[in-house]
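chain below, 224 aa
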Amino acid sequence: MIGRSRKPGLRDFYFDGMLRLVSCPYRSILITPSLSTRNVLAILREILNLLIDTAAVVLGTAFLLRAYIQHLRVDPYHPLVRFVMQLTNWAVLPLRRTVPIKPLGSRVDWASLLCAWLTALAKGLVYSLLWKTLSPLVLLHAVFTVLEWVLYSAFFVTLLYVIVSWVAPHSHNAPLLADLMEPMLRPIRRLLPRTQGIDFSPLVLILLIQIGFILLPHLHQALM
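prediction:
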């Protein structure tokens, strides 16, 4: 009949759906597959960066902790100390035998420190080769990476010390943490006023570490 409106058919719904598909906010993913591929590659790159950074942080921190333990000469039979030693022996012991870099009478474990720097350097070289950004400044960048690991190590050891001292002060890990923290907390305690029952030195140390995290990138940028 003339003038009578036509009922929408299947074709109308099909074209209407196609128009909505093209006008949807995700049309770039549906219409241009190359952009989706770039997104996948970016995600894989982030995952690879995370894996490389995690492995380097764990290994580099272990080398630094070994050097600190050797300097303090804490109980070598503690399970945590033995774990750190076993985790790092494969690199420290051969380097110590081949490169006699420890002066006589020195308590500084230069082999462990050098292994930490080599780990940071290897991380920088891997990043440079993967993303084609190789630069001679990678040597200096490795030094700042080690300094960043020092701050991270000090922060987490301090945090663990505070938690253990409050939750389980009589655990078998408490004496080891106290030995590790005492050289860092002793100078702060000398400057703080004496308080009854509350030790604010770990809090001050955490604040100093946070200040170090703020200053380190600026110093890095100034030298780079």
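The helical segments are 10-23, 27-31, 33-72, 79-98, 110-131, 138-167, 174-191, 201-223. Residues 40-223 form one domain.
thats it, cya
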